[in-house]
Specification:
Elements lengths: L1 H28 L29 H24 L9 H5 L13 E4 L3 E4 L2 E2 H7 L11 H10 L5 H13 L5 H8 L7 H11 L5 H8 L6 H28 L13 H9 L5 H13 L8 H11 L4 H12 L7 H16 L5 H13 L17 H13 L4 H20 L10 H10 L8 H22 L12 H10 L1
Antiparallel strand pairs: 1-2, 2-3
Length: 491
């Protein structure tokens, strides 16, 4: 009799538990009030400190709830009409070459054109700088405005950006055990490893994981993914600040300021908020590094792990581990190291003859010129140009920037003559380190952490849409060399 009634009892218990969790999650999700909206964006003024109760909803989440049903129907219709259409062919070289250029991923936030460069939701870097809300007296887009654009495809108003700033600040409190975890890391552990470790630990409080195991509807996955994503974006700032201050300073981390924007709070926890130029640089840096299509290692890894319905915390930790590689996010650190060694060798002699001799010596020894070339781009990276414009305005006489500027003229000529580089022009990594060290952030091993913070915006924006569209687990087909030989013979 007991055995016969047990399944019924378990189902009833599960249903009751699900209702309690759903009620709890609902109260957690209703976080912030919608501020008064205006028809057009206005310069972002310093917000008045406000206390947000759990009785109000997030403007960004409200907008997503309006957009998702329409987008679902659009994708459903598109697949029904064109699901069997062929988009391209795969060559043997692409299989052995890391799937380079194979059209196989959906990524909504950005598209990279070989000649034009990156477009964020169809806006160029320059258009983002012109259209996205900036801080008072600032010129650079706020990272909050870039995230809103990546998620919705729309340019936010200043009030919407202000609300998002406040929401992230309110979500930024770290669990005590995560703080202790970071504090107990040895100072020999790379900052990226510490970052990944801390993000993984946030899984303990994952709303998505709890909701999934309670049996919530698949149609609602996006809502819980959204909650984790917003928490992650908010908490990665104090995590990064704690890592930086422990490794390189006195271990004291400034608190998050509830009335300040995301870029300011990042500068503040690092200890650089007293320099408004540096704060503006971080706003620019976080915005232009936020997304770069879905095929790069960090973006693809986050999407891949998320496709298994791992939480945003586990997905982003995996993404960060990919970003930490020297062929990906670690490149900006290597570029600055290259530039410093070059400066030590050539001194103040930036003549064509001296620079070309140094470069040819590198190439003749089988090495590369870091910061030049790109897997997709075939022209100068627009993100490089955005940073160059910033340097021309704020540090035109800096010796390291002058070296970067001269290399911008000399390296493409040398690489073109060398003939082994498809794109001889500079990418984003060739400039960012010089800017950071100018303002005193000289710890090169930390640079990839900043890259990781910015990349979180793009990876989380896409992961929300992955769950909203119900994308399945990713599972491409692989072959052994022997099978490939047989298929080629048959062909």
């Amino acid at each position: 009799m007991l055995l016969l009634s047990l399944p019924r009892f378990m189902n009833a218990t599960k249903a009751a538990s699900s209702r309690r969790l759903a009620s709890s999650l609902k109260s957690q999700r209703l976080l912030f009030t919608r501020l008064p909206q205006k028809a057009t964006a206005v310069p972002l003024k310093q917000p008045t400190p406000a206390f947000y109760s759990t009785a109000h909803a997030s403007p960004l989440k409200e907008r997503l709830a309006q957009l998702i049903p329409k987008r679902r129907e659009e994708v459903k219709k598109f697949r029904a009409e064109h699901g069997s259409d062929v988009l391209g062919e795969v060559t043997l070289n692409q299989i052995y070459g890391g799937a380079r250029g194979v059209p196989a991923l959906l990524w909504e936030g950005s598209v990279l054109d070989p000649n034009e460069g990156i477009r964020f939701r169809n806006l160029t870097v320059k258009e983002c700088q012109e259209k996205l809300p900036s801080a008072t007296h600032g010129k650079q887009p706020l990272p909050e405005s870039m995230f809103w654009l990546l998620v919705t495809g729309e340019v936010p108003t200043a009030n919407e950006v202000q609300a998002l700033s406040a929401e992230w600040a309110a979500r930024a409190q770290l669990p005590k055990f995560v703080e202790d975890l970071i504090d107990n890391c040895p100072n020999t552990l790379h900052p990226m490893a510490q970052l990944s470790l801390a993000i993984t630990a946030l899984e303990n409080d994952s709303v998505f994981s709890k909701a999934y195991h309670s049996g919530v509807s698949k149609a609602d996955y996006w809502q819980f993914t959204y909650e984790d994503s917003m928490d992650l974006i908010a908490k990665i700032v104090p995590i990064a600040g704690r890592i930086y201050r422990n490794l390189y300073r006195d271990g004291v981390v400034a608190p998050i300021q509830p009335d300040k924007d995301y870029g300011y709070n990042l500068a503040n926890v690092l200890g650089f908020s007293n320099n408004e130029e540096f704060v503006e640089l971080l706003r620019l840096y976080l915005s232009i590094h936020s997304d770069h299509e879905g095929g790069n290692v960090s973006a693809h890894t986050g999407h891949l792990v998320g496709s298994a319905l791992s939480s945003p915390f586990l997905s982003m930790a995996a993404s960060l581990n990919g970003l930490a590689g020297p062929l990906h996010g670690l490149a900006n650190q290597e570029v600055l190291d290259f530039l410093l060694k070059m400066k030590e060798s050539v001194g103040d002699d930036y003549s064509d003859e001296t620079l070309e001799k140094y470069l040819w010596n590198i190439l003749d020894n089988g090495q590369i010129v870091p910061g030049y070339g790109h897997a997709v781009l075939r022209k100068t990276d627009p993100r490089y140009l955005a940073q160059r414009d910033f340097a021309l305005e704020h540090l035109p006489e800096d010796p390291m920037f002058k070296l970067v500027s001269r290399l911008y003229e000399v390296v493409p000529r040398v690489l073109t003559k060398h003939g082994k580089t498809k794109n001889p022009f500079p990418n984003v990594d060739s400039h960012s380190g010089v800017l950071l060290q100018y303002y005193g952030l000289k710890e090169q091993t930390f640079y990839t952490v900043l890259f990781g913070i910015s990349r979180t915006l793009g990876v989380m924006a896409q992961l929300i849409w992955d769950r909203a569209l119900g994308l399945p687990i990713e599972r491409p087909k692989s072959f052994s060399t022997e099978v490939l030989k047989k298929r080629i013979e048959k062909a």
